[in-house]
Amino acid sequence: MLPVVADEGRVVADVPSGLLIGGAWVEAGDGATLQVEDPATGEILGRVADAAVGDGAAALDAADRAFGAFRTLAPRRRSEILRRAYELTVERTEQLALLMTLEMGKPLAEARAEVAYAANFLRWYAEEAVRVNGRFTSNETGQGRVFTFKQAVGPCLLITPWNFPLAMGARKIAPAVAAGCTMVVKPAAQTPFSMLALAQILTEAGLPDGVLNVITTSSSGRVMEPLIRDPRVRKLSFTGSTEVGRRLIAQAAEQVLKVSMELGGNAAFVVFDDADIDLALDGAMLAKMRNGGEACTSANRFYVQDGVAEQFAERLAQRMEALVVGRGTGANVDVGPLIDEAQRTKVDELVTEVVSRGAEVLTGGRRIDGPGYFYQPTVLAGVPDQARVLHEEIFGPVAPIVPFSDTGEVISKANGTEYGLVSYLFTRDIDRAFHVTESLESGMVGLNQGIVSNAGAPFGGVKQSGFGREGGPEGLEEYLETKYVAMNVGGPLQ
Hints:
Blueprint: E1 2-5, E2 11-15, E3 19-21, E4 24-26, E5 33-37, E6 44-49, H1 53-70, H2 75-91, H3 93-104, H4 108-128, E7 135-138, E8 143-152, E9 156-159, H5 167-179, E10 183-186, H6 192-204, E11 212-214, H7 220-228, E12 235-239, H8 242-253, E13 258-262, E14 267-271, H9 277-289, E15 299-305, H10 306-321, H11 341-356, E16 360-363, E17 378-381, E18 398-404, H12 407-415, E19 419-420, E20 422-426, H13 430-439, E21 444-447, E22 462-463, E23 466-467, H14 472-477, E24 480-492
Parallel strand pairs: 9-10, 9-12, 10-11, 12-13, 14-15, 14-20, 15-18, 17-18, 20-21
Antiparallel strand pairs: 1-2, 3-4, 5-6, 7-8, 8-24, 13-23, 16-17, 19-22
Helix pairs in contact: 1-7, 2-4, 2-5, 2-6, 3-4, 3-6, 4-5, 9-10
GO molecular function: succinate-semialdehyde dehydrogenase (NAD+) activity
Domain Aldehyde dehydrogenase: 25-485
Active site: 262
């Protein structure tokens, strides 16, 4: 066990620092460790085991051994384990939130909200674990019967990102447990402690040894590729960049794995003249500044109709300028640091490029000097169509605003991207709302609201934002296979 230390030597939490393999916390085979940094200060929080190829193989061995028994464990028992994990997560909200803030940077209020979001996945799938159903019907020919049922797909590989380190783990693990799957989970190297704490909770909740195995590593590709190509693995779920997702899909094709990919986004935020502007501004702040803009669902491009574009831009700039930027543990802090210097440099380059093309900075637009990776909340007006900031995922607190004239124009602009994760639309016209939501090429739409995340709803995108869904009944289906039995019984129908 390795204590994670916050300010002035105060112990925040005793979190396992090893690899979880077969129910035991162990060191990496070669004893290597990787350090975890506080992005608000640049200081080292602690170290965790740095898994090598052999450790990954051991984790998959454990998952494979555990699968036979776990797939037949009573659904009610799997439900009870998830329910207990939910209760433990809620009980430890403050500890988990502080841990997440220290390793990822988000303000404590947002970290608490993420703990609640993560816990809700555990609760939702606790309720779904006992509702895995098939069907029994007559053959349409009148001879025999048709019987179908669902079975766990098999051992799974789950790869989670750094931006929502607890919730993304729960969103994958909970349906896998509900379905009866075993798994190997690899969290992001920047934020391993949240996943290790979640694994500790699930172990305490009674999850059998070997069902959940966690490997932390600085060499993700080297450790995970042999596992993806292993015939014992039957499912791969990844949340991260489109670039990495493409490579993983290619590797998964060798064993024809069942694959879920939640990849990059370039969300359009569309405001029509008839919208409730106060509501649209509230939605914009949520859609843009949740997690400091480091979210795949973050509003990346703001298209505002001509009649309200100037007003909207000015008022959004006022709200952004009023945000308090600082370490997430500070009082009244609204925006924390970006995850690392590489991400801050990317954001700064996007802003510099668009300003060189003539865009106007209404507020922000600069790095913040001092320790940590802070960037000013930024609003840009007069953004040209070809600017990189409209075509690349920003992953930072930058809002570029582009005016538009008519519905056809904005639909074309919103769909003019390789991505299709989420879009946001603000209008009071119900006919327009239906027309535009049905025309937008995205897997999700926020209609008059700036947040779409919901444990009971299917989260996922189209085009190069990926495929498959997480959350809701659809998320459980990702971990199940359907078996059909043609039954020569019952005789002809009377």
